[in-house]
Amino acid sequence: MALVFSLFLLFSVHQSFATKSFKKDDLVEQVCKTTMDPSLCESTLRSNPRSSGSDVKGLAHIMLEVSLSKGSDNFAQVKKLVGNATDPIAKQCLDVCVTEYDLLIDDVNEAIHYLESNSFKEANGHAGWAADEAETCEDCFIELKHPSPLTDRNNLFVHLGRVSRDIIYLLQKKVDIIHRLVKS
């Protein structure tokens, strides 16, 4: 009897999460309200036509794809800048950025892989690490008191990564709730 009750509760929580909390017509708005940058989240997701028919996992996937695209663009720019750098401090920081962006691309790809396999905790971690890596690139310039040619790019990526992490966290919380209900 306890198993039947747990399964009923599990189904009820799932239905509540899917319908009441996030109605399809305002899913983007509702999800984005939970992120650290609702405006960036909404503008990014609304600019992608796939978001209108997506569930929360689909929105997370779209945000990670945008992050990967921006990260790849930034990485290409960093490699171009490091190749043309004559200032030794700028070159030092750009070398740091090459390393960080290489890691960042791997982390976003890992986040996508883990999201697709419903390993939300791992996806969340990789999305967060990717944001941290872009921040590390920028921090080198700050610490060495040198103007960064990448500030806008790094900051945008940091925000995209953290918004991705915030959306994935919604999925992670849902799984945690379900696991607690099944165990009780």
Explain briefly what this protein structure is.
With about 180 residues, the protein is mainly alpha-helical. The protein has helices at about 1-20, 25-35, 40-45, 55-85, 90-115, 120-145, 150-184. Helix 2 packs antiparallel against helix 3, helix 4 (about 55-85) runs antiparallel to helix 5 and helix 6 (about 120-145) runs antiparallel to helix 7.
Question: What layout of secondary structure does this protein have?
Answer:
Layout: H1 2-21, H2 27-33, H3 38-46, H4 56-84, H5 88-116, H6 120-143, H7 151-183
Helix pairs in contact: 1-7, 2-3, 4-5, 4-7, 5-6, 6-7
User: Helix segment count?
Assistant: 7
Instruction: Name the overall outline.
Output: elongated
Distance between the termini: 13 Å
Largest sheet: none
> Taking Cα atoms only, what radius of gyration do you get, to the nearest Å?
19 Å
Query: Which structural category fits the helices and strands?
Result: mainly alpha
| Order of H and E elements | HHHHHHH
Using DSSP, what is the number of strands?
Answer: 0
**Share of β-strand residues:** under 5%
Mean pLDDT: 88
Instruction: List unreliable stretches of 5+ residues.
Output: 1-22
